[in-house]
# Entry
Amino acid sequence: MPTKRVALLGCLALLAACAPRAADSGVDAVDAAPPASSQGDVAAADRVTDAPAAAAPAVDAPSDADSDPSGGMPDLDELEQARAAAGCAVSNDIGDLDDIRIYCQMPADVRAFLERENTCQHFAGEEAYDEARRLELETASERYCDGRERIFADLYDRHHDDCALREALIGVGNRYDLFTDVAADHCRPQDVR
# Structure
């Protein structure tokens, strides 16, 4: 499953990033790791509204050159720099650089989906080290991951008139394996007869 691979790569990148600092400072690697951010109130992320979004500004889809070539997770400095450059307050639930970069340009329903999907990805990468944790992860998976494909497909259909927004959604869909069968001409004007 691609989600598990991404989570594993992220954990390995975090371990690699923390290990040299811990060795240099003489501090145990566990103490050197940054504190985990709380999930906070993500109730809004659970709801994807059916209200039509206002016209979204043109969205510059991130190029592959912007992505981390190693496939690993960005470091905290990269995330904070992207949040500062985003143009609005980006939810702390968003942990993907490409999602941060498009977040402020998205309508409310897409923002809510990005928050929900990033939370889903976070919990999908966690380890069930005991029975209580397994139950916690199953509950989180049901809350944030169940129905994600349907919600995404609804968003994609809802925003069919906005090519820039649809391009951004295609990037999201590709990042999270939400679909792969988008026609190459999905934004071309339809023949009117």
